[in-house]
C-alpha cells in the first residue's frame, strides 16, 4: 500500500525508480527492521509500476520473508546483483536514492551504471510520512506516555550528587525497560552546561543552585517521542527563574498558535516573538521545533524558514530555549499533533518549575 503510493508519486514526477537503504523509509515501506549501521549492501528497489525487490546479505535469510528478495553471500559482488535487479525493474537514469545512503554504496552503484542520475528520495517520502494516520498517532502517543512517565519517576530520584552521565544512563535504562528503546542519547545538562543545547552528559555532579535540562525520548514500534523539562536543584539564580518563566510562556504561545493551514514558520514566530520581546532573542539559538515520527528529526521543521503548511495528522516538537553562557539554560519541549485543526499535546508532563 505504502509502496504503491511511492510508486504513484514516482510515476507523476518522472522517476524511473527508487533505491532505499535501511532506515526509517525502509521500515515505513516494508515493515522490516534491518540494522541501519551494517556495511553490507542492502537495498529495496521500487519502480513506478509498484514492482519491488530487495537485495540483502544472506545473514538476513531468516528475517526477510514473504518479499521478492535476492540474497548475496560474503565474498560475492553485490553490485552486479543490484545491477541485475535494477535492469529487471527498468530502473536507470533519473533514480531516487535514500538521502542517508552510505557513500561507498553510492559510489559502487555509480561505477556499475553510467546512466545513474541520483535525486534525494526524501523529496517524495516527506509527502508520504509527514501526515500520520490514526495507527501511527496511537504509537506516537504511547511513546509520549513513556516520556511523561519517566519524568514523573525522575522527580522521585535523588539526583543531587549524581553525575550527568549517571543520570543519563539511569534515564536510558528506564526508557529501555518501558519501551522499545531510546529515540536518541538522553541529554542531561546541568548548571553552566545548560547553555549548550546539545550538551553531551559528562562527569559534572548535579548540585544545589543548578538548573538541569533533561531531554530524552522513547521509541514505540519505531515511533519516537522527544521531551525536555528543566528542573531546579534548590532555589536557582533570579536570572534563571526569569528565563524559565519566559521560555514557558513562549512554549505556550507557540502551542496556542498551532492551526491547520498556517505555515510552520508562524509557530516558530510565536515562540521567537515572546522571547525577543523579553530581551533574550539572541540567546534562543535554534529553531522552535522539528517534525517527529519514525525519525526523531524529520519534516515539518518549525523554524524561521518553515514553509510547510500544517495539516491534520502532522506531528512535531515545540521546544524553545534560552541559553546564557557561563550561567546555564532552560528548554521546555512537548510533542504536538495537529488534530481537528488545532494543536494537541502528546507529552503532558507538568511544565511548572519543579524545585528538587
Ligand atoms: C536528537 S538530539 C536533540 C534532541 C533535542 N530534543 C532537539 O531536537 N533539540 C535540542 C535543541 C534544539 C533541538 C534541535 O533542533 O536539535
TrEMBL record:
<dbReference type="GO" id="GO:0006508">
    <property type="term" value="P:proteolysis"/>
</dbReference>
<feature type="domain" description="Peptidase M24">
    <location>
        <begin position="139"/>
        <end position="338"/>
    </location>
</feature>
<feature type="domain" description="Creatinase N-terminal">
    <location>
        <begin position="2"/>
        <end position="94"/>
    </location>
</feature>
<dbReference type="GO" id="GO:0046872">
    <property type="term" value="F:metal ion binding"/>
</dbReference>
<dbReference type="InterPro" id="IPR050659">
    <property type="entry name" value="Peptidase_M24B"/>
</dbReference>
<comment type="similarity">
    <text>Belongs to the peptidase M24B family.</text>
</comment>
<dbReference type="InterPro" id="IPR036005">
    <property type="entry name" value="Creatinase/aminopeptidase-like"/>
</dbReference>
<keyword id="KW-0378">Hydrolase</keyword>
<dbReference type="InterPro" id="IPR001131">
    <property type="entry name" value="Peptidase_M24B_aminopep-P_CS"/>
</dbReference>
<dbReference type="Pfam" id="PF00557">
    <property type="entry name" value="Peptidase_M24"/>
</dbReference>
<keyword id="KW-0645">Protease</keyword>
<keyword id="KW-0479">Metal-binding</keyword>
<dbReference type="InterPro" id="IPR029149">
    <property type="entry name" value="Creatin/AminoP/Spt16_N"/>
</dbReference>
<dbReference type="Pfam" id="PF01321">
    <property type="entry name" value="Creatinase_N"/>
</dbReference>
<dbReference type="GO" id="GO:0070006">
    <property type="term" value="F:metalloaminopeptidase activity"/>
</dbReference>
<protein>
    <submittedName>
        <fullName>Xaa-Pro aminopeptidase</fullName>
    </submittedName>
</protein>
<dbReference type="InterPro" id="IPR000994">
    <property type="entry name" value="Pept_M24"/>
</dbReference>
<keyword id="KW-0031">Aminopeptidase</keyword>
<dbReference type="InterPro" id="IPR000587">
    <property type="entry name" value="Creatinase_N"/>
</dbReference>
Amino acid at each position: 500500500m505504502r509502496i504503491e503510493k511511492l510508486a504513484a508519486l514516482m510515476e507523476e514526477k518522472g522517476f524511473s525508480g527508487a533505491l532505499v537503504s535501511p532506515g526509517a523509509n525502509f521500515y515505513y515501506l516494508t515493515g522490516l527492521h534491518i540494522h541501519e549501521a551494517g556495511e553490507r549492501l542492502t537495498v529495496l528497489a521500487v519502480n513506478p509500476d509498484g514492482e519491488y525487490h530487495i537485495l540483502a546479505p544472506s545473514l538476513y535469510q531468516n528475517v526477510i520473508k514473504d518479499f521478492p528478495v535476492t540474497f548475496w553471500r560474503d565474498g560475492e559482488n553485490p553490485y552486479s546483483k543490484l545491477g541485475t535487479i535494477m535492469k529487471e525493474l527498468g530502473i536507470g537514469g533519473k533514480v531516487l536514492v535514500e538521502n542517508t545512503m552510505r557513500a561507498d554504496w553510492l559510489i559502487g552503484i555509480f561505477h556499475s551504471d553510467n546512466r545513474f542520475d541520483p535525486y534525494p528520495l526524501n523529496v517524495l517520502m516527506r509527502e508520504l510520512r509527514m501526515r500520520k494516520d490514526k495507527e501511527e498517532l496511537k504509537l506516537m502517543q504511547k511513546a509520549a506516555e513513556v516520556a511523561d512517565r519517566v519524568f514523573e519517576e525522575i522527580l522521585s530520584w535523588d539526583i543531587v550528587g549524581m553525575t550527568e552521565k549517571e543520570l543519563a544512563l539511569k534515564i536510558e535504562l528506564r526508557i529501555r525497560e518501558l519501551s522499545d528503546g531510546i529515540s536518541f542519547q538522553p541529554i542531561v545538562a546541568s548548571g553552566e552546561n545548560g547553555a549548550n543545547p546539545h550538551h553531551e552528559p559528562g562527569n559534572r555532579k548535579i548540585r544545589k543552585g543548578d538548573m538541569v535540562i533533561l531531554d530524552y525520548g522513547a521509541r514505540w514500534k519505531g515511533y519516537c517521542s522527544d521531551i525536555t523539562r528543566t528542573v531546579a536543584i534548590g532555589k536557582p539564580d533570579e536570572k534563571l527563574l526569569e528565563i524559565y518563566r519566559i521560555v514557558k510562556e513562549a512554549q505556550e504561545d507557540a502551542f496556542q498558535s498551532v492551526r491547520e493551514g498556517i505555515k510552520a514558520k508562524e509557530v516558530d514566530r510565536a515562540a521567537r516573538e515572546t522571547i525577543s520581546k523579553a530581551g533574550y532573542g539572541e540567546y534562543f539559538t535554534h529553531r522552535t521545533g522539528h517534525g517527529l515520527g519514525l525519525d526523531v528529526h524529520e519534516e515539518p521543521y518549525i523554524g524561521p524558514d518553515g514553509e510547510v503548511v500544517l495539516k491534520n495528522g502532522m506531528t512535531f516538537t515545540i521546544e524553545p530555549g534560552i541559553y546564557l553562557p557561563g550561567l546555564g539554560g532552560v528548554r521546555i519541549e512537548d510533542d504536538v499533533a495537529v488534530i481537528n485543526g488545532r494543536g494537541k499535546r502528546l507529552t503532558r508532563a507538568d511544565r511548572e518549575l519543579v524545585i528538587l
